[in-house]
């Protein structure tokens, strides 16, 4: 079984529920989750590109539909906050859901709003998506701008409350500013190795080592454009190359899966951040193909214990350390 520590499921829920549909996870996603042996996932609220000019309103819409979906599907979903909750969900035959948020633009310039997010159940948050906001600067923002004073306050609040801090979309300066301020393990929920695929969203070797030094982890991203510059090499084998490289630098205990699948998103959302029409990564096009990745890992010499650590144990360790 596995936990996917980054998925945009709430965006799909929001779009479809706004059109009058219900039971989105059950009708559109659950079968693929089961085929992929996915026992849990960090489902993320973010301000999708068609709505970046109205972040507060879009956030309220998203959490409204998120809460409706959770309430009406308690037979298949359980929101969790630690490993105890995860294993309870597995025992009940339910999907373990971690509530996450990607970018704090809906808070404007008020980091105290993080207290509200915590009370709503959010336990994994990144300060930015690709944009720059009052707290920090994302991968597409000003390279000379990093974490702001409000961002430093946000980091402290998150650590005091017990929220996992995600640096995947931070630009390099924001990453290192966060590294200096944070005291608890940090994660990059959906990033690969920049030395193998030179895009801003991937991590340098120095960043990878810094995450390892802090006891954090990196979720391997299956988005094809983050795997290899050559389109013909965007496949599961090259994805494993990223895993091997990161493991060589900081060890198996700092790896997880953060697949970032989005084949289900509307084109007006996905077309804002991809080069070509999305066609997936060969061999792991969506979560249902995850067993193929597991088989390939076994062929490449990963032990069963290695695979279990990467699949769910490492992330649960972080949850227990940070969230309690």
TrEMBL record:
- GO MF annotations in UniProt: metallodipeptidase activity
Q: PROSITE patterns, per this entry?
A: RENAL_DIPEPTIDASE_2 (PS51365)
**Alphabetical list of InterPro entries matching this protein:** Metal_Hydrolase (IPR032466), Pept_M19 (IPR008257)
Question: What CDD domains would the database entry show?
Answer: rDP_like
Q: Name one GO biological process term.
A: proteolysis
The protein's matches in PANTHER family, at most eight in alphabetical order, are given as: DIPEPTIDASE, MICROSOMAL DIPEPTIDASE
Indicate what this protein is called per its UniProt record: Membrane dipeptidase
Q: Which organism is it from?
A: Tepidimicrobium xylanilyticum
């Amino acid at each position: 079984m596995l936990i996917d520590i980054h998925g945009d499921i709430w965006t799909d829920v929001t779009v479809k529920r706004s059109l009058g549909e219900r039971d989105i996870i059950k009708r559109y996603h659950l079968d693929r989750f089961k085929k992929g042996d996915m026992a849990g996932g960090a489902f993320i609220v973010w301000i999708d590109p068609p709505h970046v000019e109205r972040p507060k309103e879009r956030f309220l819409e998203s959490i409204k539909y998120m809460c409706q979906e959770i309430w009406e599907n308690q037979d298949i979903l359980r929101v969790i906050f630690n490993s105890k909750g995860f294993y309870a969900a597995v025992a009940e035959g339910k999907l373990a859901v971690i509530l996450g948020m990607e970018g704090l633009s809906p808070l404007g310039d008020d980091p105290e709003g993080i207290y509200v997010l915590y009370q709503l159940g959010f336990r994994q948050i990144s300060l930015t998506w690709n944009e720059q906001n009052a707290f920090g600067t994302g991968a597409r923002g000003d390279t000379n701008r990093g974490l702001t004073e409000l961002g430093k306050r946000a980091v402290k609040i998150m650590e005091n409350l017990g929220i996992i801090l995600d640096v995947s979309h931070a630009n390099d300066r924001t990453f290192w500013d966060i590294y200096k301020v944070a005291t608890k393990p940090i994660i990059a929920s959906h990033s690969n190795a920049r030395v193998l695929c030179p895009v801003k969203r991937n991590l340098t070797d120095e960043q990878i080592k810094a995450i390892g030094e802090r006891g954090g982890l990196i979720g391997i991203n299956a988005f094809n454009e983050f795997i290899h510059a050559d389109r013909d090499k965007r496949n599961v084998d090259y994805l494993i190359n990223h895993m091997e490289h990161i493991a060589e630098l900081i060890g198996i205990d700092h790896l997880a899966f953060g697949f970032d699948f989005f084949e289900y998103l509307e084109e007006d959302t996905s077309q804002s951040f991809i080069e070509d029409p999305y066609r997936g990564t060969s061999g792991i096009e969506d979560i249902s193909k995850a067993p193929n990745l597991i088989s390939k890992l076994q062929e490449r010499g990963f032990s069963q214990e290695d695979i279990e650590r990467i699949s769910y144990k490492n992330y649960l360790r972080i949850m227990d350390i940070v969230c309690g």
